[in-house]
Amino acid sequence: MKPDLFQAPDYYNLDDLLTEEHKMVRDAAREWVKRDVSPIIEQAAQDAKFPKSIIKGLAEIGAFGPYIPEEYGGAGLDQIAYGLIMQEIERGDSGVRSTASVQSSLVMYPIYKYGSEEQKKKYLPKLASGEFMGCFGLTEPDHGSNPSGMVTNFKDKGDHYLLNGAKLWISNSPFADIAVVWAKNEEGRIHGLIVERGMEGFSTPETHNKWSLRASATGELIFDNVKIPKENLLPNKSGLGAPLGCLDSARFGIAWGAIGAAMDCYDTALRYSKERVQFGKPIAGFQLQQKKLAEMITEITKAQLLAWRLGVLRNEGKATSAQISMAKRNNVDMALKIAREARQVLGAMGITGDYSIMRHMMNLESVITYEGTHDIHLLITGMDITGISAFS
Ligand code: TGC
Ligand code: FAD
Questions:
Q1: Who's near 233: CB < 8 A, 6+ residues apart?
Q2: Name one Pfam family in it (predicted).
Q3: Which has the closest alpha carbon to 271: 356, 391, 157?
Q4: To pair with 262 at 20 to 30 A between CA atoms, which of 9, 245, 308, 345?
Q5: DSSP letters of 222-268?
Q6: Ligand 1: distance of its center to the CA of 372 in Å?
Q7: What is the mean pLDDT of the chain?
Q8: Residues 303 and 258 sit within 8 Å (Cβ to Cβ)
Q9: Which residues of 5-23 are buried (b: 16+ CB within 10 A; e: fewer)?
Q10: CATH code, 14-129
Q11: How far is CA 190 from the centre of its chain?
Q12: What's the 218 CA to ligand 2 centre distance in angstroms?
């Protein structure tokens, strides 16, 4: 891959809306991505290998539990700082951001929000430092968009629970030390359970042949009569609202992260178009290329404003799940469209691994599907504004 010359676009002076702490956190993440992610990420994606070497750096920039209080090892930051970290990481690669999203919002968040004090003390500091890595098991082979139909279940056996079932498409599963798993009890009520690697009957086969998120490890979670100690049940919330609450936090991070991928594609296309000469002048001088670039920066700016406002609402505890859905849907779609346009600006060079655009484009095909598909988020908005569910 060519040297990382990224310059962040800020067309509406959004930096003026950020605090000094926001900028400090953002710049540290940006610097780390340039130094430790950009030089290795293309090869990792080509090899379809999660680069474990980045775990330490992710912990150091506060990407594991940015908003978890410091007493549990988190960085104690606000939601905008969390969003900015996700933006910078995804500027490097969506798969790297996935690892951070899962660890923070889908593993640390449920333990922090729904866990006992003992669970918080036992797991959160180790997850924040990267000593433990986690994954989140909601999706099943036959239940993706409709998680309430899940069949993974546990039975009360007196001094322990017995867990059976399977989860599919689980980020980080092949190397995770713990899994937060959603399963039904004998009454059909959904609960979260902490499953630890090494428990008998628990396996995590890797899913291969992905053309997307190749630098992120994806796999299954298989439970064959796994004995779960009773103290591993998350005691403070049950029902589908518990996992969906975690998704709110992760989807918010994705709404910011997608901006990072879009900014990288735009910046790369802008630079290339000024350097590439055809018909005796830089292609940036042709109206058709300017249209592409002008529309990209317009869409990025709108997405930045949406994410920032959502961050303010989250900080005030006022953001609704439907508002988060709108931002996730809009910003990922925006980023994917920009990646496709930006790739064309580079002509043939755009399909090579010398530039990041094609990798972003393929990654975003997963991002538009996971954490609720593009269409599911539209239906969430539809339900919110009409009061009528069109899901079933
Ligand atoms: P529905 O009847 O609407 O709701 C059931 C209960 O949940 C409550 N609720 C929420 N609570 C918190 N946050 C939200 N976002 C919530 N949305 C709904 C709701 O109030 C209700 O509570 P209660 O007390 O009345 O029971 O549920 P439904 O079965 O009709 O489904 C609704 C639907 C389709 C929107 C939902 O299930 C959905 O979002 N489906 C998409 C599934 C999804 O996003 N899966 C993601 C898996 S994890 C993942 O992809 C990680 S990728 C990680 C990475 O690598 O970055
Ligand atoms: P389906 O639900 O089968 O949907 C197929 C199509 O039908 C979609 O276009 C969908 O929008 C549409 N559709 C479904 N229902 C309706 C409806 N009511 N109305 C209209 N259209 C509808 N899950 C986890 O639990 N943990 C993870 O860590 C995780 N990581 C992932 C990593 C990757 C790389 C990927 C690709 C997925 C990951 N997922 C994870 C799973 C992800 O959340 C699901 O893929 C997603 O929720 C969609 O489920 P599905 O793939 O089964 O699609």
A1: 161, 191, 192, 193, 194
A2: Acyl-CoA_dh_N
A3: 356
A4: 245
A5: EEEEEEEEGGGB--S--STHHHHHHHHHHHHHHHHHHHHHHHHHHHH
A6: 8
A7: 98
A8: yes
A9: ebebbeeeeeeeebeeebe
A10: 1.10.540.10
A11: 23
A12: 14
Topology of domain 241-386 in CATH is Butyryl-CoA Dehydrogenase, subunit A; domain 3 (1.20.140)
CB 150, CB 189: distance < 8 Å: no
Contacts of residue 193, Cβ cutoff 8 Å, sequence gap at least 6:
154, 161, 163, 180, 181, 182, 183, 228, 232, 233, 234
**Given the structure tokens 């923070």, which residue do they identify?**
104
In contact, 232 and 341? CB cutoff 8 Å:
no
Give the mean pLDDT per block of 10 residues along the chain (392 residues): 93 98 98 98 97 97 98 97 98 98 98 98 98 98 98 98 98 98 98 98 98 98 98 98 98 98 98 98 98 98 98 98 98 98 98 97 98 98 98 91
Q: Is residue 21 annotated as part of the catalytic site, yes or no?
A: no
| Of 364, 386, 391, residue with least CA distance to 95 | 364
Would you put residue 201 in left (φ > 0), alpha (ψ -120 to 50) or beta? Answer: left
CATH tag for 134-232 (out of 1.20.58.60, 3.40.50.880, 2.40.110.10, 2.60.40.10)? 2.40.110.10
Q: Return the SS3 of 24.
A: helix
Instruction: Identify the residue whose C-alpha is closest to ligand 2 atom 52.
Output: 144
